[in-house]
Design goal:
alpha+beta; globular; 14 strands; D-Maltodextrin-Binding Protein, domain 2; 2 domains; seven-stranded mixed β-sheet; 291 residues
Length: 291
């Protein structure tokens, strides 16, 4: 831990590293990890729970008066009337983890009166530590990071997450992907939204979009992006997106080119835009060969 960092960020780093140690130990014998299913294709492991417990214990030992919002335990821990809320995803990318696919991370953010002010995204497989304090910039392993400088979509690498649960709107997502894929240099689906956002902040990708996300998926990563000079919002470009279940992040120039492509697929779009999105989805369905 560094004496130059904000004290609350130092505690979050300590919590993230403790969780990362648990995840790395379990990854040595991932076949023995107990897995259960929250719903179709939505997994949780004993590692998620152990990681979350370690994070919460570390945070509440330092700040017992703070509130907790965590993926597995919800709001059951901490002082829930506090203005200080720790938003935790103890293992983002669980499906990757249980398959031994090394793309997953720990995500911890601190929101103060609804605004994210501290962020840690820790990749235990690479020992990559992404951190940010509001107004102080974003860092990877204590080195300052910035979003990419690319200005054209056709030169850009874009990350996303595919829908995978029963009831998800697959036709609309295919239409969305089609709109983006035809205009960028490549589309990637790593499988951990918090890490996707960290990569936008570090300039490793130029943009990211996904629907169906919860606050713990995007809280920490969103601060990394904005502190690295990028923009984050919903698909219509509105910056107050944390509870909207859709996220778009990119460097400013690419963000400006992605909003017009994605806004018609937003739940906050107008009737005309939504009609256009339905037409695009219908065209894709009609163009698919019969099985």
């Amino acid at each position: 831990m560094s004496s130059t960092l904000h004290p609350m960020l130092n505690v979050a780093i300590k919590a993230a590293r403790a969780a990362g140690a648990i995840i790395n130990r379990a990854a040595l014998d991932v076949e023995s990890v107990r897995v259960s299913q929250k719903q179709v294709n939505d997994f949780v492991t004993e590692v998620d729970h152990a990681s979350e417990e370690a994070i919460i214990e570390t945070l509440l030992t330092a700040y017992p008066g703070h509130a907790i919002l965590a993926e597995e335990s919800g709001r059951t821990k901490g002082a829930q009337d506090s203005d200080f809320v720790w938003i935790i995803d103890p293992l983002d990318g669980t499906t990757n983890f249980i398959h031994g696919f090394p793309v997953y991370c720990v995500s911890i953010a601190l929101a103060v009166k609804g605004k994210v002010e501290q962020a840690v995204v820790y990749d235990p497989t690479r020992n990559d530590l992404f951190t940010a304090t509001k107004g102080r910039g974003a860092f990877l392993n204590e080195r300052r990071i910035r979003v990419s400088k690319r200005t054209q979509m056709e030169q850009s690498l874009i990350a996303t997450g595919f829908p995978f649960r029963k009831g998800d709107d697959f036709p609309s997502y295919l239409a969305m992907m089609s709109d983006i894929m035809q205009r960028c240099a490549g589309l990637r689906r790593p499988g951990a939204a918090a890490l996707d956002l960290a990569y936008v902040a570090a300039g490793r990708t130029d943009g990211f979009f996904e629907t169906g996300l919860s606050p713990w998926d995007v809280a920490a990563g969103s601060l990394l992006v904005t502190e690295a000079g990028g923009l984050v919002g919903n698909f219509t470009g509105e910056p107050d997106f944390l509870e909207h279940k859709e996220c778009l992040a990119a460097n400013p120039r690419i963000y400006g080119q992605m909003v017009p492509l994605l806004n018609k697929y937003s739940k906050f779009a107008g009737a005309e835009e939504k009609s256009l999105a339905r037409q695009n989805a219908e065209k894709l369905k009609l163009s698919r060969p019969a099985v």
